[in-house]
Amino acid sequence: MNQSEIPTIRLHNQQIAATNLKTPKELVGWMGAMQAQDYNQAKWAIGVRMPHLTEAQIESAFNKGEIIRTHLMRPTWHFVSADDIYWMLELTASQIKSTTKSRHRDLELTEAILKRSQELLVKTLEGYKSLTREELSTQLNQAGIKTDGQRMPHILMEAEINQIICSGAMQGKKQTFALLTERVPIKNTLTKDEALALLAKKYFTSHGPATLSDFVWWSGLPVTNARKALKMNKSELFSGTIGNETYWFAETGFKPSPLSDSVYLLPAFDEYLISYKDRSAAITIDHHKKAVSNNGIFRPIIVVNGQISGLWKRIIRKDSVLIELDHFRPHSKKEEKLIEKATETFSHFSGMKTELKLNTKPD
Prior knowledge:
Order of helices and strands: HHEHHEEHHHHEEHHHHEEEHHEEEHE
Number of helices: 15
Helix content: 40-55%
């Protein structure tokens, strides 16, 4: 394996180049977890990998509780399969709590306040209710629990990682919260070692080739636990060394060949870019500064033959979607045609006609 083969293999393992998976739940389960702080972008992360599905079909799976949106791992919002949510929370909760402890002190969120707020959330949501953040905030305030500033997001996140609440069905365009035990009544649990092994297996199978450092970044696990998780999978993984780095991946039968005629419009925070500590296989340092802001915002990217060659954004109109392009480099006429073709997948996903506009000329 060489450096140029890494993007090709990742595009296939991440199900971007092609997939035999049929449902959003299958895809999210394959990926382990998919970053999802921007709900609409996260739906497209599934849609671009499953071009036979529409946005409405993906949202239906979400509303049914087949995929759940909650805080996991680093921590940030992720999509996770209902089959995986309990054992994954049990594995990562303690690490998340260690990162939020000082912030809770700053916000004066004591253990007593958090416990009381969680008891109230259970009482408010029980009976298969799905309520918005604003509705829950009103209930907490009426009970004398302040939710101003960043207190409410931290109250909700603590309840999520304690397996009390998770995402509920959408109310129009508004996110809601529901009780996890009602949303996902079947609780799949694993021992810690089983969970470590399974998380590493999912990551290196779906995201490989990747290094131990990549896995540590993605999972948020302590290095010792991440190393142990990798070790438990080594007999089933293949590896390749490039420079001083060892890359791990599963044998899928796929044989890499030079990419050609491959263009994808990937969403903000897509796993193709965000899930690796070292992203140099797919993007140059100069282009990375354009694709990722100083405060960690990952922008929607244009991927041509495995390399990130520009940015794009969508502007929803009344009956169409305007897709604006910002190229990092000149694209050939053939590549421009392929970019135009890539928008057809988004058109099918959204159910709306798409129009293209090139905003800037590349440097």
